Amino acid sequence: MIRKLTKDDQELLMALLRKEPALNLFIIGDVENFGFEQDFMDLWGEIDPADGRIKAVLLRFYRSYLPYADGPFDVEGFAEIIRKDNDIHMISGASEVVKAFDGEINFKQVKQLFFAELKEMNNKISESFSSAEPIKKATVQDVEAICALTDTIEEFESSRNGSRTSLRKTLESNTGRTYYIEREDKVIVTASTSAENSMSAMIVGVATHQAFREQSLASRVMAQLCADLLHEGKSLCLFYDNPHAGVIYKRLGFQDIGSWTIVNM
């Protein structure tokens, strides 16, 4: 049986989501930050009639949908909910879950990313960094300086227009943090988190100025950022589609745990 979830279901929902806190950081974060009574967000759960547990969940966040299940689930039932939405923009989630909707929903464009998780740092790599400029934690006053760097990075072009607003909102809401190194009053390397919640966080926005690459600066900032979050008891995850970047992350201790699929409607 599929039904709308309410705050009375939060404990049962978290019992499902905490099985894979990295994969579920978006749903966990949205529930912790916004609850169940928002017009931009809905949650449906498939209830196991045998024991009453929630075996699968579907999140709508604005125009995007994110399904999760830890086993077989009612694909047709969730697909019927999605098909009723005439304003849907995207479906995303663990590839094996999203793939189950193939044939039920027409996809226009499919993008697949590697999904990696960090539970334990490779201390050898962090010990290899020589001490130099201090690594700083950003405040809202640093937004312009950080975005002045990311504006120069080709990979950030698609998100450039809203980058300042997004970063400022993340820092103000404490749903993410940004670390950086500067030289001559200019930010030369940065790394951030987003979707932080009580269990997990996602690494995003890793960038190094073109003139300062191949100096392990991004790895150094990443190592500090990850160490601080692990110390807080959070698991870390990230998406990547560049094998070269994947090598860097794996040196820190990240391990591939699957793939993430984004489909546009």
Automatic annotation (TrEMBL):
One family name in Pfam for this protein: GNAT_acetyltran
Organism of this sequence: Paenibacillus odorifer
The organism's taxonomic lineage, starting at the top: Bacteria, Bacillati, Bacillota, Bacilli, Bacillales
All copies of domain N-acetyltransferase, residue ranges: 133-265
Coiled coil: none
InterPro entries on file: Acyl_CoA_acyltransferase, GNAT_acetyltra_YdfB-like, GNAT_dom
Descriptive protein name: N-acetyltransferase domain-containing protein
